[in-house]
Amino acid sequence: MGPTNKTLSISPSVEQPDFRNITFQELVSAYSQQARSLIKGGADILLVETVFDTANAKAALFAIRQLFEDENMEEIPVFLSGTIVDLSGRTLSGQTGESFLISTKQGNAMAVGLNCALGAKEMRPFIEDIARNTAAWVICYPNAGSFY
């Protein structure tokens, strides 16, 4: 379940920094539809990945948990993977790996980690930070090459 081109934390308009082109509930609805379809199609896990806006990740995790509870669907493992955009060690919406974990903890992902943007060497200190700050399994799938 990949990222959308709409975010809850970042305005699509530099002229209107407070403007958002989607609501939390609209994202929950979209993620719920994705998760339902994946589960009905036989998915073994749900992977919320390439997260650059933690508020969007919270909407996805909320949608998944709501689906399991409200529709009595069999729970399958949920993995969560964020994206650190550069060597600053922050997501596009400005969070560190530790902040990302704290913000999404209530989603109870079985595994958490990072993907995209950086090569393995550049990602290593950030995934180590994730590992130090979670009891969940840690996943990491960097870009094949390095941008730096």
TrEMBL record:
- Provide the GO biological process annotations: homocysteine metabolic process; methylation; tetrahydrofolate metabolic process
Superkingdom of origin: Eukaryota
SUPFAM superfamilies named among the record's database cross-references: Homocysteine S-methyltransferase
Domain Hcy-binding, by residue range, is: 1-148
Q: Which UniProt keywords apply?
A: Cobalt, Metal-binding, Methyltransferase, S-adenosyl-L-methionine, Transferase
Q: In which pathway does it act?
A: Amino-acid biosynthesis; L-methionine biosynthesis via de novo pathway
Q: Name one GO cellular component term.
A: cytosol
Alphabetized GO MF terms: metal ion binding; methionine synthase activity
Signal among keywords: no
Which InterPro entries would you find in this protein's record?
HCY_dom, HCY_dom_sf, Met_Synthase/Corrinoid
Which family is annotated? Answer: Belongs to the vitamin-B12 dependent methionine synthase family.
By its UniProt entry, which PANTHER family does this protein fall under?
METHIONINE SYNTHASE
- What's the protein here called? Hcy-binding domain-containing protein
Organism lineage: Eukaryota, Metazoa, Ecdysozoa, Nematoda, Chromadorea
